[in-house]
Design goal:
The protein has 346 residues and is mostly helical. It has 14 helices and 8 strands. Helix 2 packs across helix 5 and helix 3 crosses helix 5. This is Tyrosine recombinase XerC.
Length: 346
Amino acid sequence: MERRRLSEPKYTLIKRGNRFYVRWWENGKAKRISLGTEDKTEARKLLKQFLAGIDSNTMPQTITVNNILQKYLENRKGKVSGFEGLKYACASISEHLGFLQPNHISRKTCLTYANQRREQGRRGATGGRNKPLSNGTIIKELTTLRAALNFAKIEKWLRDVPYIEIPPTPPPRDRWLTRSEVDILIEHAPSYHLKFFILLGIYTAARSGAILSLKWEQVDFKNKLINFGNGLGNKRRAIIPIPEKLIPYLTDAVNIRLSEFVIEFNGKPIKSIRHSFRDLSIKTGIKGATPHTLRHTAATWMVIAGVPFPMIAQYLGNSVEMIEKVYGHHSPEWLKQAAKALSDEY
């Protein structure tokens, strides 16, 4: 006897062999999708996530979000800076949405995901309590999901890409360091390579990835130039003159080098400086400082000193529009013409 058709499918949890599945009936026939787990408690949790993502009559396809994320990571490896961060974002998406079919992703799914990630906190946190998660992290993860789905469409895995609801962008951080704060960081840096990184960050205004990947062959002592080469992805890099204050440090470092990398430890390149920099900022009581703060600080100092925006943009490898938008309010000339217009008599 054929089952009575429902206006909406009824999804239930079943077990086949050792694995749990979601089952529903379509046109009188049973359909199912694996939840990829043998644990019943975990399966119930995944079922709730699955139901939270269903808000249309579209039935699951054969491809999962996990399939897409894996292929996307394979494609992006070696092409983007911060690949470890991309892997972290994909791991977070996979944990909560990986079992879903792309057509099950909706605005509701994204909102549920954002709430779950806020409740979860930072993945891999230790110490018994979750560390707070910023909106910026959730935005990065959902943006990564959108990029992966667009990649799947380019690869002709998908015909249509579901809409991905992104939380509002948080206001940009305006944390920059005073010269005395920079001096304190340099003075208390516990290692030579961390001190050298801070000096390069302040005097070149380069991104952390560009500094850590910089090789001695890119430092032209004769013409006093540093060529940061080609960035990965859409990150632009600059060729800049070596600041005079940096020359003695570069000269000392090249004479004691053990590898081809400017920043090294025991003859090996350094993948990340984030943790040691964080420990230093905590030790010195300089709150809110990260490796990227050095670049932000250098740009702010140049703007305050009255350096023209096009020159700063070229030094940082950014657009003039971006410099005006992010740093313009620090300029001594910013909006003076507008203020003067209000005082002029007609």
